Inverse folding.
């Protein structure tokens, strides 16, 4: 039996245009060989920049934005396609190879009904007639667990949820009966509770249709559930290639071991302490709406400890942060901070109130002014709150840079010249510069690669030990919560459904939602997905 | 720095030459501005490179002084329109609420009236001097700048770094000048070139209609008007200032295009 896809010694290059320098060629992928057989799933895993998407797209002989496939062989069904012309590629893309993109919401045309988009390629390639294609689409909708398969296709993309849209795109990819499907981070943009349904749907569909698949992701725990083989990539090179069982249970390379054991941080719950922040009976709604986004929230954050607020998107956890910072004044309820009452609106707060509550954002990119140097970004709070100027300010900036483990030479750089992890560190330094009692961390590690995120969490913990600052840690990632929290508040639809010390919250018996949330976090072991489905008490909101 | 495209190079050279002529007019002009040195509409000769005008003044001299007036008025009006337009635009974007509503609706109102007609009405009512001209042109043009800078700033005010500045307790001034302005500068600079051209055309139009620069001063629009009667007799004196207006407009445009393409390119975009 021949392989559906055979990639041998693939080399991919692109031209980079560094500012102020001559354009030069960079090698994105070097000497990578993989093969996939019918009915098998190959997982491509690595951090951002590892070349996993680039390799995935090369399976349909496509290079994104100036990327060139310069060497090696790409054999699809035994046929060399690396240097195929546009006419030949047109016959195979969407026919023999199809693609499922990360953001279904951005990939669907909002003005066309789902059915017409799902069957488009099948009709274009003349694989089947419209009636046949529609029948197949309905069958696939059913197989993928979409509600009311008969009528699902009549809806527009905005009328279905994100998880459903992702499954609709999987149906689109499977409709023309391809030989190979490329899944490019299909669940990354989804909530954990939704992710699990999509994972199940994808897994069943692959098994039932018997296609070969490439599954690209940065989450090893996810890929362990769906893939038969895994290729670990780093910097465009192969690190390790083997069966899923071997990679998860018996990794050979140090890098793979680090990936498998990530979130090794252990953090014991601290003893009860007087609260630095008390949120009492807070209810909030956005202006011009008559819907309470937060309903009667009561939580305490002990000084020098971490309160993790967990929940899926739309649960109101970021809104809670906006209420505490004063960006969205609460309609009812009281905020007590360091023994004094915080006025609900930002404009009425004293400079000390502002200084002692700092915030770190999810996207470090947009949290820093791209036209200011790191020195200015960190120096401004020093100047603003403490009147530090000139040499004194410069020294303090350097101290702060040392604290975030970045050393000298960074003060004159612009944010664009930093890596993702470094950017987030600078944001931490900016918050620390104000000598705050409380830092609100809004999904600070979600945009980072796992190993980098790990470093940030360790930094936050050591800073807490040294400076005694309290964190309100907003996240949807339970592994992070286990690593960092002292107290946990689980939020669901604007309410706190479970609240208490870490050990209490994470110890059964659970309420239904906490059970769903906890059980939905992919674990790094084989067969986890099947286990979870058997034991679930509650359907996730995506259905 | 990537290589300058040829079109931008030509644009820069010509624009530079025009501005040099305007600045050094007093030393470059071969005759006095009001001096009658020849006959009516003499053809070009070695003494009068562009010939003479409707009452026998040297046309080249008039053109050089005209460049000074035209470029001076246009530059001042553009600066005025940018300072008022962008400051108010940023203010509207950052303050929001009724400030934004009041400013934006007032600007809509002004923009609903054709600016040439509005300018003509105002200029018939007041004494036409260079300062009044500049103020009228600058304020009328600032409505366009207001719209652009408000649109650009609205995009920037929703960025996390502006929110971070607000949470820090920064005042409106810091937010506008340190957070928003540096990030809005590139599209504004590109717009500056275009607005300058419109100012040149506007002052020329006003002068041609007799409500712009008043004699004894002369700008290019005024020169076209003075000599337009000659066209009937086949005298080409009116074409020289007309061509100068066109040449200046095109050369500034070439530069503006280049700046625009730099700011909209993928690699050198606003974020970088």
């Amino acid at each position: 039996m021949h392989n559906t896809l055979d990639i041998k010694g693939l080399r991919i290059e692109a031209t980079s245009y560094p500012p102020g320098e001559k354009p030069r060629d960079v090698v994105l992928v070097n000497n990578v060989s993989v093969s996939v057989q019918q009915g098998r799933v190959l997982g491509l895993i690595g951090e951002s920049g590892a070349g996993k998407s680039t390799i995935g797209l090369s399976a349909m002989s496509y290079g994104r934005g100036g990327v060139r496939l310069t060497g090696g062989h790409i054999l699809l069904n035994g046929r060399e396609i690396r240097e195929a012309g546009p006419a030949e590629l047109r016959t195979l893309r969407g026919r023999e190879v199809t693609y499922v993109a990360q953001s279904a919401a951005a990939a669907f045309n909002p003005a066309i009904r789902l059915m017409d988009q799902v069957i488009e390629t099948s009709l274009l390639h003349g694989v089947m007639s419209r009636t046949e294609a529609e029948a197949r689409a309905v069958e696939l909708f059913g197989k993928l667990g979409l509600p009311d398969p008969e009528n699902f296709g009549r809806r527009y993309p905005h009328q279905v949820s994100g998880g459903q849209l992702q499954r609709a795109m999987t149906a689109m990819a499977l409709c023309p009966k391809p030989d190979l499907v490329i899944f490019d981070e299909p669940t990354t943009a989804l909530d954990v509770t939704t992710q699990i349904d999509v994972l199940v749907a994808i897994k069943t569909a692959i098994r039932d249709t018997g296609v070969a698949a490439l599954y690209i992701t940065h989450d090893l725990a996810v890929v362990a559930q769906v893939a038969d083989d895994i290729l670990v990539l780093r910097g465009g090179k192969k690190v390790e290639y083997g069966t899923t069982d071997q990679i998860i249970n018996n990794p050979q390379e140090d890098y793979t071991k680090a990936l498998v054991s990530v979130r090794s941080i252990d953090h014991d719950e601290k003893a009860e302490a007087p609260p630095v922040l008390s949120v009492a009976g807070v209810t909030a709604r956005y202006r011009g709406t008559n819907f309470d986004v937060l309903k009667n929230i009561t939580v305490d954050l002990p000084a020098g400890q971490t309160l993790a607020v967990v929940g899926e998107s739309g649960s109101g956890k970021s809104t809670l942060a906006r209420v505490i910072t004063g960006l969205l004044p609460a309609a009812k309820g009281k905020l007590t901070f360091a023994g004094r009452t915080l006025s609900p609106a930002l404009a009425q707060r004293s400079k000390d109130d502002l200084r002692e509550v700092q915030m770190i954002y999810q996207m470090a990119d947009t949290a820093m002014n791209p036209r200011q140097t790191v020195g200015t970004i960190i120096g401004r709070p020093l100047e603003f709150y403490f009147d530090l100027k000139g040499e004194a300010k410069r020294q303090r900036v350097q101290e702060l840079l040392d604290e975030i483990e970045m050393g000298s030479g960074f003060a004159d750089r612009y944010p664009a010249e930093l890596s993702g992890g470094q950017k987030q560190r600078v944001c931490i330094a900016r918050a620390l510069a104000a000598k705050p009692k409380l830092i609100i961390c809004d999904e600070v590690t979600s945009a980072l690669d796992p190993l980098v995120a790990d470093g940030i969490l360790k930094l936050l913990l050591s800073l807490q030990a040294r400076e005694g600052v309290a964190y309100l840690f907003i996240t949807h990632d339970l592994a992070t919560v286990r690593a960092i929290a002292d107290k946990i508040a689980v939020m669901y639809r604007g309410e706190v459904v479970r609240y208490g010390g870490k050990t209490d919250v994470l110890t059964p018996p659970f309420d239904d939602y906490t059970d769903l949330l906890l059980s939905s976090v992919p674990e790094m072991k084989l067969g986890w997905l099947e286990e979870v489905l058997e034991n679930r008490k509650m359907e996730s909101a995506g259905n | 720095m990537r290589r300058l495209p040829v079109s931008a190079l030509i644009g820069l050279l010509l624009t530079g030459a025009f501005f040099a002529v305007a600045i050094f007019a007093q030393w470059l002009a071969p005759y006095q501005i009001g001096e009658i040195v020849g006959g009516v509409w003499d053809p070009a000769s070695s003494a009068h490179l562009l010939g003479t005008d409707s009452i026998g003044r040297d046309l080249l001299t008039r053109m050089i002084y005209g460049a000074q007036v035209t470029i001076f008025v246009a530059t001042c009006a553009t600066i005025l329109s940018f300072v008022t337009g962008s400051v108010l635009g940023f203010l509207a974007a950052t303050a929001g609420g009724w400030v934004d509503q009041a400013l934006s609706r007032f600007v809509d109102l002004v923009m609903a009236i054709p600016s040439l007609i509005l300018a003509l009405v105002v200029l018939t009512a007041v004494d036409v001097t260079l300062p009044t001209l500049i103020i009228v042109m600058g304020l009328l043009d600032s409505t366009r700048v207001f719209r652009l800078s408000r649109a650009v700033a609205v995009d920037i005010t929703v960025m996390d770094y502006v929110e971070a500045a607000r949470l820090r307790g920064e005042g409106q001034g810091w937010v506008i000048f340190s957070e928003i302005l540096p990030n809005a500068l590139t599209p504004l600079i590109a717009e500056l070139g275009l607005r300058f051209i419109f100012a040149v055309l506007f002052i020329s139009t006003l002068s041609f209609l007799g409500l712009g620069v008043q004699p004894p001063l002369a700008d290019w629009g005024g020169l076209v008007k003075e000599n337009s009667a000659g066209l009937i007799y086949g005298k080409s004196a009116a074409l020289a200032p007309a061509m100068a207006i066109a040449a200046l407009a095109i050369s500034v445009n070439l530069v503006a295009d280049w700046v625009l393409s730099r700011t909209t390119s993928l690699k050198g975009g606003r974020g970088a």
Q: What stands out?
A: The CA atoms of residues 80 and 138 of chain B lie 5 Å apart. The first helix of chain B runs from residue 6 to 23. Confidence is low (pLDDT under 50) at residues 265-272 of chain B. Chain B touches chain A at residues 1, 159-161, 163-164, 166-170, 178-179, 182-183, 267-268, 271-272 (CB under 8 Å).
